Structure formats: C-alpha cells, structure tokens
Amino acid sequence: MAESNIIDGKAFAEKVRASVARRAAVLKDQHGIVPGLAVVLVGDNPASEVYVRMKGKACEEAGLYSETVKLPATATEAELIAVIDRLNADPRIHGMLVQLPLPRQIDTNRALHRIRPCKDVDGFHPENVGKLAGGEATAF
User: Fold this and answer.
1) What is the share, in percent, of the chain residues with pLDDT greater than 70?
2) Which of helix, strand or coil describes residue 105?
3) Residue 84 and residue 86: Cα distance in Å, rounded?
4) What is the rounded CA–CA span in Å between residue 118 and residue 84?
5) Fewer CB atoms near the end CB (10 Å): N or C, the chain?
6) Residue 41 · residue 52 · CB < 8 Å
7) CA nearest 75: which of 47, 55, 99?
C-alpha cells in the first residue's frame, strides 16, 4: 500500500501568497503595474461578505490593488451590467469576479458573460469555459 502525504494547506497558501507578493512587487518596480482585482457583491449574504472581505485582505497583503463594489439586493440587472462595464474599461482592474449567488431579478449568465474573458477570474465566460474544455489555455 502506498504511503500518503499530508499537505499543510495553510503553509502552502502562505508560500503561494508570498510568491504572488514578490511577483507583484517586480511588476510594480520594473513596469509600474500594480495588479488589480475587482469583486462585485450584490446583496448582503453574510457568507459572501466574509469571502469578499478575505479577498480584499489577501490582495492588500500581496501588494495588489483591490476594489469591492457593493450593490443592494434590489439592484437591477442594468445596474450590475453598468458596474461590470465600468470595471471592464478600468485599466487598474486586471481581474474581476461577481460574487454568486445573484438575486433572482438578475440573469446570472448574462452578468457573468458580460465580464471580458481576459478579466474573468472565475473562468465562467463561455470563451474561457470552451478553452478549458478543449484543453487550451484561457484568455488570461
């Protein structure tokens, strides 16, 4: 019977974060680029709020730019699309995610598909899903 290895997830995550911080510092020092992540949260789901807050903290620790956009649970699809379009056009934002689940009045697929494939952190855009299914690298 093969021996199993126990992986220390916390230690591994710390190594990954330290590596990201070093690479982000190089980008900033050598090219003047600070990688940026935007997270859009619609509504007030407590678990989602914790997740989004943790993403912002991780970005800060790694020296990344982070922007969180919070919309009320009553936000319309048009309001969410306008935020996504603004973030798509923002050169400070290199990656974006829309926190799920979305309220019923918003078509989740329409919202997720509005994110530019090269900024789609979750990989939900059809272009990225197709590339992944086909064994290709994603747009990013």
Assistant:
1) 96
2) coil
3) 5
4) 13
5) N
6) yes
7) 99
